[in-house]
Amino acid sequence: LSTEHLDYHKTMDNYFDAKMILLENSKNRIVNIDDSYGKKAKKRFPDAVTFGLSEEADYRATRINKIEDITNFKLKGIDFTINSIADYEVYNKLAAIVTLNLMGASLEEISSKLKEFKGIPSRFQYVKNDLGKNIIIDFAHTPRAFEAIFKSIPKDVKTIAVFGINGDRNAEFRRLIGNACAKNDVFAVVTTDDPKFETYEKIRDEIVLGIKEYDGEYKTIKDRKEAMIYAISKANKGDYILMLGKGEEHFLKLNGNEKTPYNEYETVLEAIAAQ
After folding, report:
1. Domain span holding position 228
2. pTM for this structure?
3. What's the CA gap between 239 and 127, in Å, rounded?
4. CA nearest 62: which of 84, 77, 49, 82?
5. Which residues contact 177 (CB under 8 A, 6 or more apart)?
6. 237/137 Cα distance (integer angstroms)
7. pLDDT tens digits for 23-56?
8. What is the mean pLDDT of the chain?
9. Residue 144 and residue 141: Cα distance in Å, rounded?
10. Deepest of 57, 108, 218, 264, by most Cβ within 10 A of its Cβ?
């Protein structure tokens, strides 16, 4: 759990209790034992099946190895391959594997299907290009999600992140995401997301404040497409350019809650074509 819904739940304890309603009403309970809230859930529901990387997990991924744009690991003696290098995707896939296995699918069958599965849009989604650059679209919009993506990227290449932050809620995210960029040596291109009833300039300045706290590098470009063009042009072959925050939302809220049509994937393709 992260703090993104505290404007509704008020406290993390309330948020956790709300999530536990799902487990209370489930026949089979599956929790991530590597996560602190997963551990709390296991204590509340001792019959829960657990997954993770630690030895105490009922379903434990071992021998994790990244090769280019795939990740290999072993689970109960079976080899698995997933089409992503995002660390969090190992956990996501473990949750799916456990669910399917409990429903009756064999691990061998699940492994075979996972090799063919290319992922879902806007979850560490690679955008094909002829530039030799790793261009990724992801819906990440919380400090924890940004951190998770940044830590998944190889350390021997440059990472550039193009993003803005929503207006009118979770204002503390702005400084924290700025911090995350600087701490992980990510070049931030701060652009527009959904300013709503705030201004791009106000949101931008609060993000930049967080970047400066840890002496990070950044550039501010209000127009999202122009920001993408700049980021792609700045990257070298093999570098990672992360387009974060919008994902599958096919709109921008530039004026209050009025939705202006927008497509992140198509805009990225236009930015690539402009190189």
Report:
1. 125-273
2. 0.84
3. 13
4. 77
5. 142, 143, 146, 163, 165, 207, 210
6. 17
7. 999 999 999 999 999 999 999 999 999 999 999 9
8. 95
9. 8
10. 264
Residues shown for the chain? 275
Residue where a domain stops, chosen among 79, 97, 116: 116
In a shared domain, residues 134 and 71: no
Contacts 24+ apart (CB under 8 A), 111-116: 111/78, 111/79, 111/80, 111/81, 114/80, 114/81, 114/82, 115/81, 115/83
Do the Cβ atoms of 165 and 245 come closer than 8 Å?
yes
* Same domain (yes/no): 72, 151: no
Mean pLDDT of 209-230: 98
Exposure string over 30-52, b if 16+ CB within 10 A, otherwise e = bbbbbeeebbbbbeeeeebbbbb
CATH of the domain at 144: 3.90.190.20
The number of C-alpha atoms within 13 Å of 71 and in the hemisphere containing its C-beta is 24
- Residue 243, pLDDT score: 98
Tens digits of residue pLDDT in 164-188:
999 998 899 999 999 999 999 999 9
Distance CA 93, CA 125 (A): 15
pLDDT in tens, 62-105: 999 999 889 999 999 999 999 999 998 999 999 999 999 999 99
pLDDT of residue 170: 84
